[in-house]
Amino acid sequence: MLAADGKKLSKRLKNYPDPSEIFEKYGADPLRFFMMSSPVVGGEDVRFSSDSIQEVSRNVFMRLWNVHSFFTTYAEVDNWQPLKELTHPNSENVLDQWLLARLNQTIEESTRQADQYKIARAVRPLRELIDDLSNWYVRRSRRRFWKSEDDGDKAAAYATLHYVLMRIAQLLAPWSPFVADKLWRELTVGMDVSASVHESDWPKAGEIDGEMLSLMADAREAINVGLSLRAQAAIKVRQPLASATVNASLRPLESIVVEELNVKAVSYVDEPTVGMDLELTPELRREGMMRDIVRHVQSLRKQSGLNVEDRIELAFTNVNPELTQAIEEYQDVIKTETLAKNLNFSKEFINKAIVKVDGSELTISLQKTAV
Predict the structure, then answer these.
(1) 135 and 257, same domain (yes or no)
(2) Nearest to 93, CA basis, from 187, 158, 165
(3) Of 257, 276, 295, which marks where a domain is finished?
(4) 308 lies in some domain
(5) Which whole number is the average pLDDT over 253-262?
(6) Which residue, 196, 167, 157, is CA-closest to 64?
(7) Are residue 179 and residue 299 in the same domain, yes or no?
(8) Cα(256)–Cα(238) distance, integer angstroms
């Protein structure tokens, strides 16, 4: 193990962070995870610094705990409870099917590598799964948890996310035992399972849906290309566009492509190509304004300390005619997205913010109201 500058660790040079400070600031588990996923467990050199531990803490453990917090927040709002036994969920939603395929793929790979004592190769797939869970599955599934109605798709989303988090706790247990056990204990309240993750059995991989994994990988690649075309044209993602053109193989994931590229429709071709209609009509621009307004209202809700289920009174002042038209045209969407009971153009509440929407200044204010 070497210092950050590539030199040997030396007490005389003091070229390494104090372990007690690492434990105090980040905890023992990020350090363990860094070590286990590094070349050092294979007898190769690795450079060690507090920045390395900070990166693992932020991109693995904070990311995982943010997903857990997201899950528990909405589960408490909906009073959702898991089954008594840990049961593999069944879902018709393609995102759930993909995530379960990714989980089985990770279990299979981590088990195979750990059985061969290739520890770094056993740990790294878990990091990749946590990244996919946070940056793709949860981000793509948020609206499913936001739904006010208690439908089957929402129940499937809860069951899938809970199940995957429990399996991640088991996969994490040998390498980062404290966080894994805390995660397990919080997820298993009321269940008839082992009290500690370290008393549970290592998970077994189910059937890996390779077709779904390949299809989602292709869709994500096409989406990246489409977003690059947006960036080249300096059109922000919140601004809706008329259409995109993608390969016909992505038809089963049309809803995901539409939402990620923020287009009104998708056209299909047989060639492996991606195209975007970048023309902005007045109607599309007004919808883009609405999306910006919703984002600012959500930010103000958070700054005002509101809970995710709190209803609000919402007011807009200092509104130019174009913004007024956009707000009136999309008032039902704005109310639904922000949990606003009413929109007002004359009042002004205590919680307020002055923002820019399409280059124009707008004052947004709100207050919590009774359900």
Answers:
(1) no
(2) 158
(3) 276
(4) yes
(5) 96
(6) 167
(7) no
(8) 15
The pLDDT confidence band at residue 89, using thresholds 50, 70 and 90, is: very high
Q: Are 67 and 35 in contact (CB under 8 A)?
A: no
Helix, strand or coil for residue 202?
coil
Residue 84 phi/psi, 5-degree rounding, is -65, -40
Buried (b) or exposed (e) across 225-244, using 16+ Cβ within 10 A? bbbebbeeeebeeebbbeeb
Question: What is the tens place of the pLDDT at every residue in 305-356?
Answer: 998 889 999 999 877 888 999 999 999 999 999 999 999 888 899 999 999 9
Q: Are strands 311-317 and 340-344 parallel, antiparallel or unpaired?
A: parallel
Q: Which domain holds residue 271?
A: 211-276
Query: Which residues touch 262 (CB under 8 Å, ≥6 apart)?
Result: 237, 238, 239, 240, 241
pTM for this model (two decimals): 0.85
As for how many domains the chain has, the answer is 3
The answer to whether position 13 is within a domain reads no
In angstroms, the CA 227 to CA 232 distance is: 9
